[in-house]
C-alpha cells in the first residue's frame, strides 16, 4: 500500500497512512477524526477532502460525502495552484462511483487531462472512467491519443476493442470495423503482434467482416504460433474454414483435433457437419470464442441433400473408419465420445434414409452395453431417445429390460445399470402410459433396490454421493405421476416421505431438496419449502438462475418478510455486480485480455436486461404496498419514493421488452412444473403419450414462459401507478362535476383510463369488452369462470375501474339504479370470487395445490387496494383537520355515494369474516389429529399387498443392522420417522394459515374502525 | 465426453447443477471474473453432449494455479511464487454428480500439472483442502499429492486447511514436498 502514499496529494505520507490504516480496519470514527485533523492543516487539499468524503460514505452518510466531494471537485477546477495527482483523482473516483455519480468522476479526470495533457497515468484513469460509463466513442478517441503518444500496442488494441463495442452494443455501422482493421494492419506491418489476445482480436475483426480466407491465412502463418494451445488454434482454424465453405479443409483440421482429443464431442459434430457438407447454421461467433459450435437443431434437420447417395455413403465410411481408429486408440477408458459418435452417424444415415432404421436402435444398445453403468449414460443419449418411434422405443426398452435378467457380476455395476434403464424409462415418459398397478410395483421394486443396496455405501464418507441416490428422485417422480393419474393424496405424501428419508440418510442431496421445495409448495406447507430452499444455500450468481424454485410461490403467499429478504438479497447481488462489472472490464483491459473485455460488457448487458431483475424491481414496491396497505398515509409515503409509480411504468416499455433476457436454469425443475407458470398437476391427467410429449416439450414451454413473463412484467409495472391514481381520483367525484375540477384532475382521469385500457389488453380483452364481461357476470348473464384462471388481475382491474368510474359515472345505469353502480360491481366480484374459494369442503391439508395462494392474493391485492380507495374517499369526505366527526358521514352527506361506501365496507367485513372462519376451521384441529390423518393416507390398502406399502418398505429398512450398512446409515435409518415428517407438514401448514389469518384480522380491524367513523 | 474449452461468463448461468453441491463454493462475481480477466486460458470448462457443463477449472501464471469443475468438470488455477517456490496452485476442483467416478478430476489435475510443468516450468503444484474432507484428501493422495503442512484455522478462521503438494520434474530432489513438522498460521503463508 506504500506506493499509494507516494504522492499523497502533496501531503506527507506519514500523515496519511494512519488514516488509511484506520479505514482498512473499519475504524471509521477514528479515521474521521484523523481526517478532520488533516483537513485543519491542509484545508484546501482536494486529497484531504476526498479522504474525508470516502470515510463519510463508508459511514453511511452519502449526502455529506457528496457535498465534500463536490467541494474537492470545485477546488480542482477553480484553483490552478492546487495539487492534483492520480491518487487524489482515484480516491475521488471511488467515492463518486459509490455515490452513483460516475459522470462527476469523469469530469474531474477530464479536467486533469487538460491540465496535464501528456500524463499517461491520468489518461488511463480517464479511460477507465469512460469504461465505467460505457462511452465507447470517447474510449476509442482517448486510446488512440495514448497510442499516438507512446506508440504502445496495447493502446491501439484498447481503441480496437472500443470500436468493436460500438459495433456490438450501439448498432454502429460495421464500416468502423474496416477502420479498426486498417489500424491494426498498419501497426502489424511495422511491429508485428506479440500477444495471443491481440491476434485473436484481429481474427475476430476479420471474421466479423466475413473475411474468412484472410483470417485463415493469418492464423496459418507465423502469427498462428502465438496461440499456445495447439487444439485451440485448430478449433478456430476449423471454424474459419467451415465458415468459408471450405469443407474439405475444415474436415481435415477437425480430424486432427479429434486425433489428439478423441473425447471432444463438439469437434466431432463439427467434423461430421463439414464432412457431410451440411448446411450448418454456424454461429456468428467470432474468434474470441474458441469453440466452433454450429447450432444444431435438436432433431438435426441438417440433411446432406446435395450429395449423391454414393458420395454420402463414401463419406460416412470415412467417418466410420475415423471413429473406429479413435475407439481403438482409447479403448478401455472412460472416453465416450468416440463411441457415442456411432449413434450420431446412424442418426445421419437415418435422416438420409440410406440405412435400415434398426441400426439406430442397435447403436444405442451397443453404447448401453459399454457405458450403461455410468450415471451420465441417460443424459448422453437423451437427445437421441426422443427420435425413436413408438415401435423402436418398445424394442429398445425390451432389450434393455432383458439385460436386467442377467446383470453384471459386480453389484455396483448392476445397480448403476439398472438406474440407467430407469432413467431411460423416465426420459421416454413410460410412466405416463404404464398401467397403474405396474407403476406401483415398479416404485416399490425400485425402493427395495435402494434399501438393499445401502450396504454398498457402508464405507463411504458422508460427504460422498451414495450409490443409488438417483433412485429416490425417480421414485418420487413416479409417485407424483401416480398422484396425477389418481388424485390420491397418499402418493404425494409417499413422494415426500421417500425424499425426506433420503435426506435423513445423507443430508447433502440438493436434487431431493429441490423436489421437496416444489412438493411442499404444492401441499400448502410453504414454510417448509422455504426452509429446504434456504438449506440449498443459494447465493451469488445462483440467485439469478435458481431462485425461480421458490420466489414465485413466496410472492403469492402471506410470508411477506421472508419474501422481502429474498428480493433484497437478489437485488443486492445484481446491483453490486452491475456496479463492479466495469471495474473488472478495466482489469481485462489492463491484462490485455481483449476477448474478455467484449465478453464482460455483453454479460453485464445480459444481466442488466434480466427478466428476473426487472420483475424483482417491480415486486419490491408492490410488496411494500401490500405490507403497508392498511395505512393510506404510509402508502402515500411509499409513492413519494416511487415517483408516484410513473418510473415503474417505463420499465415495461417496448424497447425493454425486446431486449429482455431469460437466465433461469429450469433444468432441475420437477417434470410437472417445467416453468414457474406451469403446473400440470392443476389439470386432470389425460391419456395419450403424444399429447404428453408435446406438453412436456421443455423448449417450447420455455418460449411460452417468456411470453407469460413479459405480460406479467407489464401488469406489474402498471399496478403501482393504477393504485396511486385510484387513490388520487376517487375523492375528485366528491368535488362535483369533473369539468369543474382542476386540469390536474382531468389529466389523472385521462391517464387512468389509458392505463386501464392497457391493463385490459394485457389480460386479453379490449377495455369495452372487459367492461361488458364484468357487467354480464354482475348481472348473472355469464358465469365467473369466464374470467379465466387469472382472477386476481381481473379483480384488480375491477377495483381500478370503480375508482375511475367514480369520476366518470360510465357504469351507472340511466335509471340511476343504485344496485348498478361500480361499487356494487366490486363488492359483487370480491364476494363471489372469495366465496367460491371458500366453498371447497376439503381442508388445505387434503388438497394439494389448494386455492390458498389465490385467496391470499385476493386479500393482499384487490381487496387491499379497494380498502385504500375507500380510505381515500372517506378522508376527503371528512372536513380537513378533523379525523372524527360526531355525526356520521352518511348523515352529513346523505348521498348515494356515501351509502355505496358504507355498503362496500360492510361487504368487505363480511367477506373477511367468512375467510377468518374458514381459516380458523382449518387450524382448529390439533397437530396430533393432523398427523393421524396424514399417516392414514400413507397406510392405505394397496393392490399389491405382497410388496407392502411404500411406508412399510421404508420402515422395514430400519431393521438393517450396523454390520450391513455401517453405523452412520444405521443410526440415520433408526432416527427416521414418518410421523415426524407429518408433524412438520402440519406445523408448516398451520403457520402459513396463521399468518394469513393475522393479515385478514388486521384488515378486519381497520374496516371496523372505518365503519365506526361513518 | 469432455469438450474442454475456455470458461466464459455465460457458463456462470449454467453451472447451477454443479455448484448446488455442498462441497462446491459459489464465489462472488469478482472472484470468477478476475480470473477470467487475468488468466482466461487457465479457466476452462468441460462440456458434455447436450451442452451440460461437466466441470471446470482455472489457474493462472505468476500467482496461483487453481482449477475447478462443475457438474461437468472444469478447473481453475494459477501459478505463483519465486525461485524454487514457483508453483502452480489448485484453487478448487469439482465435478458434477453424474460425471463423478469417471476419473474426471484426475484428467483435469493432470492437464493442470502438465501445463505447470511443461509450459510454466513450475517446481511443484499445491492445493488447500479442508482437514475434514477425507474423500478429497484420499483422492489427492491417489494422484500423488502429499500433505506438506497444516494451516491452522485457514477456512474462515474455523477449520484447519491442509497444504498438499506434488513435485514436478523441475524439482529433481523433491525438496518442495518434504513435510513441515509444525503447523503454520495463515499469516505465515508466503504469498499473502
TrEMBL record, chain B:
This is N-acetyltransferase domain-containing protein. Keywords: Acyltransferase, Transferase. GO terms for cellular component: NatB complex. The lineage of its organism: Eukaryota, Viridiplantae, Streptophyta, Embryophyta, Tracheophyta. The keyword Nuclease does not apply. One of its GO terms (molecular function) is protein-N-terminal amino-acid acetyltransferase activity. Residues 2-169 form the N-acetyltransferase domain. InterPro entries: Acyl_CoA_acyltransferase (IPR016181), GNAT_dom (IPR000182), NatB_acetyltransferase_subunit (IPR051646). PROSITE patterns: GNAT. Coiled coil: none annotated.
